[in-house]
Specification:
This protein is an alpha/beta fold. The chain folds into 2 domains: 33 residues; 170 residues, ABC-type transport auxiliary lipoprotein component (Rossmann fold). The protein has 3 helices and 10 strands, in the order αββββββαββββα. Strands 2, 3, 4, 5, 7, 8, 9 and 10 form an 8-stranded mixed sheet that branches. Helix 2 crosses helix 3. The longest helix is centred in the first third of the chain and has 29 residues. The chain is elongated. Keywords: Signal.
Amino acid sequence: MITWQALRRAMGATALALLSGCAAISAVSDAATPLDVFELRAPGSIPALAGRARAQDVIVEMPTTSGALSTDRILIRPNPVQAQYLPDVRWSEPTPQMVQTLMLRSIEATGAVRYVGRTPLGASGDFAIVTEVIDFQAEVTPDGETANVQITLLVRVVRERDASIVATRSLTGSAVAPSTETLTVIDAFNAASDQVFAEFASWVQTAL
């Protein structure tokens, strides 16, 4: 004989299973929702330093970074120790790949070297650019109304033939977003990015 207690337990288990199934379907639905895509571009015009064009091959290695930035989601911090992402949007590439692309395009824009790429044309290049992405996020101000975009890169130029570090530079760019609306924050990212990669392209020419 099935007791009332046993029947209640069975009904409860069935209800939990249905709720779990609904939650799983909801999670799949959220994951399938398309996100608006944004991309940053290298500064438009970066002049080569006079007399610096040379027959050198430069390899831009994949930057390293923290777990919170190893994604194509756009990081925004409501406080210094909390990581969140802007809803319904993403970068065109994960942050490390996007930084690598911006570095490549910035060096290419100078016309200062024979070749710049992600991999060498031959066995190795002449120099490698090794980068750590320290900051690449918007930080909400205490009043919650505005945000500061902060980009910080630690960049090293390594001579390939003896693996020696020939130059190191910390590059920082920042910009204020007057609101936390997505397009306003993206505009601030673009302004901070222009600062960083214009400085990077000018500096790396003197470091090679």
